[in-house]
Design goal:
By secondary structure, the protein is mainly beta. Helices cover about 0% and strands about 50% of the residues.
Length: about 190
């Protein structure tokens, strides 16, 4: 069980917002905050059914209650959150999500969601494989340029034996263009 809390930065005292929920509050790139709209977004597998559906949960920061659950077009992973990420544009509230899209051969795909209707819009297929995701995912969003930077694990099938490596990409959410970045960057964390 999980609940949102506020923390007094002087005393360190935690105060629970609302009540506990069965939805897990995730880490590892699976949460984003929209302070302007009073929302906290988390992403994970919906454990209330047997479909292994990846959902985004919208939490109200004022009262800690869940205001909406949105099914995402991603295949659930054995380890929750591996190969998935979420960001939010603080200027307009657009939500950016990434995960394995089973309709695209399990490749990593980037979608945006409208902050009012939560309707998903496909942005880009950046490749990748669910077979290499044990290495995780790193993202950051440049809201001035409307570009999401991604580090994803992909398989190099031409190696003997096949081996995973990190792919670095920049994806424009305005036109869907994908730019592969030099592997020499070797980033494991990113911030904007």
């Amino acid at each position: 069980k999980s609940s949102l809390v506020t923390i007094d930065m002087t005393s360190g005292r935690m105060t629970e917002l609302g009540t506990e929920h069965s939805e897990e509050l995730e880490a590892q790139e699976l949460s984003a905050i929209d302070a302007k709209r009073g929302r906290y977004y988390t992403m994970g597998v919906d454990t209330t059914n047997q479909t292994n559906t990846v959902v985004m949960v919208v939490w109200n920061l004022a009262d800690g209650k869940i205001s909406k659950k949105v099914a995402l077009p991603f295949a659930g992973e054995p380890f929750v959150g591996i190969g998935e990420a979420i960001d939010v544009d603080p200027t307009d509230g657009t939500i950016i999500v990434m995960g394995h899209d089973s309709s695209r051969g399990g490749h990593h795909a980037v979608y945006t969601l409208d902050p009012t209707s939560y309707k998903p819009t496909f942005i880009a297929d950046i490749g990748g494989s669910m077979k290499a995701d044990g290495m995780g995912t790193t993202t950051t969003y440049d809201y001035d340029e409307k570009v999401v930077y991604l580090v994803t694990a992909v398989m190099n099938n031409s190696a003997t034996p096949p081996a995973p490596y990190f792919k670095h990409s920049a994806v424009s959410i305005t036109d869907g263009s994908v730019t592969d970045l030099p592997v020499s960057l070797i980033m494991q964390g990113a911030a904007y």
